[in-house]
Amino acid sequence: MNEPIDTDKDGNALVLMDVMATEDLIVEELDTKIKSESLYRYIDEVLSERERIIVRLRYGLGGKIPLTQREVAKKLNISRSYVSRIEKKSLLALKKRFNKA
Q1: How far is CA 94 from CA 10, 41, 52, 77, in A?
Q2: What is the mean pLDDT of each run of 10 residues along the chain (101 residues)?
């Protein structure tokens, strides 16, 4: 595992562990990207308009800054507990959809 198998562009020795670690990172990044794309699709498929808005605001999806439940409630002129209930229901629906895939 630690025996040199090749050299990089700078002439440094590469060992099998270096190559495997890089491949693991690539696989992990690809898996995250696939799951992220699925999440955005499921949000549109499974959630109502209000649920989508709350989830996007709470988790900062689409490049936004995540907001607290209190901030979301104020922005939408609803109670924080109502935001909490909608958020919980939405997350359960998304989890159920992910488990079907």
Answers
A1: 47, 10, 11, 25
A2: 66 67 67 85 95 96 93 97 97 92 70
